[in-house]
Specification:
Elements (H helix, E strand, L loop, with lengths): L1 E6 L5 H9 L5 E7 L2 H5 L5 E4 L12 E7 L7 H14 E11 L5 H11 L17 H10 L3 E11 L1 H8 L4 H10 L5 E10 L1
Parallel strand pairs: 1-2, 1-4, 2-3, 4-5
Antiparallel strand pairs: 5-7, 6-7
Helix pairs in contact: 6-7
Length: about 200
């Protein structure tokens, strides 16, 4: 039996999907999220309400750690702390998937995101975020002494439609998302495997 940690697990949809695809393995699942109400619906064996910068788990006690789209919803210094925490708690392998900015033009997405998440559209209000580039993340991996391999790096267009669908936006709110993201209606999806 392997221990599987899902960081930013929310209601656990990804965790359940992953377990179903890896049905030849037995996992003790641990879900960590700062949102207690989301965790109530999560089916993980153990649920922990915590900030990802200070995960209350013993050093090197988790076989496999997953962080899927969780890092970007933190500032730069906290992103570095989260990466260090992943290195601290994981003993075998971590998989990190990130939505980030274009390495060639990182300011485009940052500027659009600042307008998009400033509260003008209440459903999208975020207090803290930073869409780091893959190069920035990899620099932080190196600073933390983590051995990594980039396994995916692709541009995802029309993210405005993803936000509209996910947050069920209609009318003026949906159009406002499209207007804000006109010049930066994309992000870069990158995934890494870290081995220990």
């Amino acid at each position: 039996e392997y221990s599987l940690l899902d960081l930013g697990s929310h209601k656990g949809e990804f965790l359940e999907d992953l377990k179903s695809r890896l049905n030849g393995y037995s996992f003790e699942t641990v879900a960590v999220d700062v949102n207690e109400s989301d965790l109530k619906e999560n089916q993980a064996d153990k649920k922990i309400v915590a900030d990802l910068t200070q995960i209350p788990i013993d050093d090197k006690s988790i076989d496999l750690t997953i962080a899927r789209y969780a890092i970007a919803w933190n500032g730069i210094e906290n992103q570095k702390r989260i990466i260090k925490e992943i290195g601290r708690v994981t003993k075998r392998m971590a998989v990190i998937q990130q939505q980030g900015s274009d390495p060639a033009h990182p300011c485009d997405l940052q500027a659009a995101a600042n307008e998009l998440f400033n509260g003008k559209i209440p459903e999208l209000k975020r207090d803290c975020f930073y869409f780091s580039s893959a190069d920035e993340i990899e620099g932080w991996f190196r600073e933390s002494g983590l051995a990594f391999e980039r396994i995916q790096h692709r541009k995802v267009d029309n993210i405005s439609e993803l936000y509209i669908e996910k947050y069920k936006l209609e009318g003026d709110a949906a159009q406002e998302v499209r207007n804000i993201l006109t010049e930066a209606d994309y992000l870069w999806q990158t995934a890494w495997v870290i081995t220990f």
